[in-house]
Protein: Mu-type opioid receptor
Amino acid sequence: MEAENWNQSEPNSTQLFCGGPNGTLGGRGGSLCPGVSPSMITAIVIMALYSVVCVVGLFGNFLVMYVIIRYTKMKTATNIYIFNLALADALATSTLPFQSVNYLLGTWPFGTTICKIVISIDYYNMFTSIFTLCTMSVDRYIAVCHPVKALDFRTPRNAKIVNVCNWIISSAIGIPVMVMATTKESNGSIDCTLKFSHPAWYWENLLKICVFIFAFIMPILIITVCYGLMILRLKSVRMLSGSKEKDRNLRRITRMVLVVVAVFIVCWTPIHIYVIIKALIHIPETTFQTISWHFCIALGYTNSCLNPILYAFLDENFKRCFREFCIPTAATIEQQNSTRIRQHTREHPSSAHTLERTNQQV
Structure:
């Protein structure tokens, strides 16, 4: 598209989700708005929150990826999807230092290339995360409601292929956003923003609506249907697997995925609703509006650091691997226990083989 076709006449034409007059940074909601000047206390609180989210998010998600790569027993289909979710979250939290500097300085000092990367990462994270959660929900549905088909479909190899497909589909929005992202001088400062062709208001609102539908409404509907069907199935006392151990593992992992999905929805609902309201009506810029806006943004980013914590509390395998990484002495005890278990399995090989098959299939 030719440069002269870009509309720069309207002060709000380059805004995507930002409440300020000077443009926006970030697909997750344009988390930093140079045109808005919150109080020093608000700025300190926001910066502190972003710093905590960045440190916890990077450490936690890299730890999740390390554990899945390091331990063979963690390479299940569900954990391959969790790896993809951790990768997207780690990329999102890695942009927070750039956004924090932009917030403090009131201008974007990193140039156009970094601007394009930061905004596109936000959109990639948004779509890849929700697509992965949809995939995990469908995966749980197949495991619970169609256990026979699950034996062929739910393999680590297929999970990796699905993850790649999720990133390719996310590129349908990520690449155009990267192309549209640019820097623009406004009122003595430089903004990292999106530029829309004329009429800007039309393309801007169209993008907001598409994000709302494809990154929020449709995924939630898919997830709701999957879990609705699973709940009906799980109400039965015994499932068709014929194994109490496998049924227990199915319920445990299904519960973990459900909690992760629920937390994602809680963290992302406010910003999506806020964006749609701003697209429909004018919201005057006040201190309360600024604080509310940044709270919604921070809540969205907080989701990126919550998932590793959820895994640690809800999944025994993750908890054990995390403990082994953080407290190496615990690994020695685990090895001693494993030795005793191996001795037991040599005496009872049939039961050990059954348990191993159960863990792999779940």
